[in-house]
Amino acid sequence: MNQVSALTSAIVAEGGAMRGIFTAGVLDALMQAKHCPFDFAVGVSAGSTNLIGYLCQAPGRSKQIICDHATRDDFISWRRYLRGGHFCDVSWLWHASFADIPLDLQYYQRQKRPLWVVTTGVHSGKSHYFKISPDNLHQVFPASCAVPLAYRNYPVIDGEPMTDGGLTDSIPVEFAYRQGARDITVILSKPLGYQKRKSALPVLTRPFFRGYPKLYAAVLRRAQRYNRALQFITVPPLDCRIRVISPPADFKVGRFTKDTALLEQGYLQGIGAAQIYLQDV
What we know:
- By secondary structure, the chain is of the alpha/beta class.
- It has twelve helices and eight strands.
- It has helices spanning 20-32, 46-55, 61-67, 78-82, 90-100, 105-111, 137-145, 173-178, 201-204, 213-220, 222-234, 260-278, and strands at 9-13, 40-44, 115-121, 127-131, 156-157, 160-164, 183-187, 241-245.
- Strands 1, 2, 3, 4, 5, 6, 7 and 8 form an eight-stranded mixed β-sheet that branches.
- Helix 1 links the parallel strand 1 and strand 2.
- The radius of gyration is 17 Å and the shape is globular.
């Protein structure tokens, strides 16, 4: 992994599938205000796909993808899943949306403001961080979003199968700090105060991880790692300032919400939260 050098300011975005509509609203408001002072960005899953739209200066792109492409049966389908296919076809979503709403990757490269995206190694059970370029984006973004079981394949990057980055680093704020950022803005996809509880579900899904013991161990530790990131945000190191943009308590969008009215409400809540944030920066 290459080190980022001489960078001091970062923006970090959590994933959360359809909850990413809040982040879409936040980033559209920042684009409207021409606010992009960050030296680099770090995202995972839907947070990463939101951030590439922001760094390419594509207002409205993420909202359109979430409210249109992501609500189609091509993306989420119980019927397909019960027939042995994907519940969430993240590869289709990435490639179809990229074809329909292209990104200005030349602009992204000219700005020299890199985006780092998190995935989880299937064999290692560890986080991997990839610096996005035109050469790897079509592999990295689907891998970061590939929730185990919901997406039945493990996308391969550099010869290694990968899965959802949120399993091992849902809020990659500590990674941003390790890379030198001391002024960090974090966009969460759940209201402030949320704590992840250890779920019984991983025990029930253990047979599906047969052959991948380290990945299963990562699944069991997910709540602990998530809450550790929240603790880092709440009590950062003395040399670091962290500002948080999070959904309000009445945010109603869930991971697989397809209701367009709720998605529109979540988007507007993101815009509102960003406007409050901009008053203090």
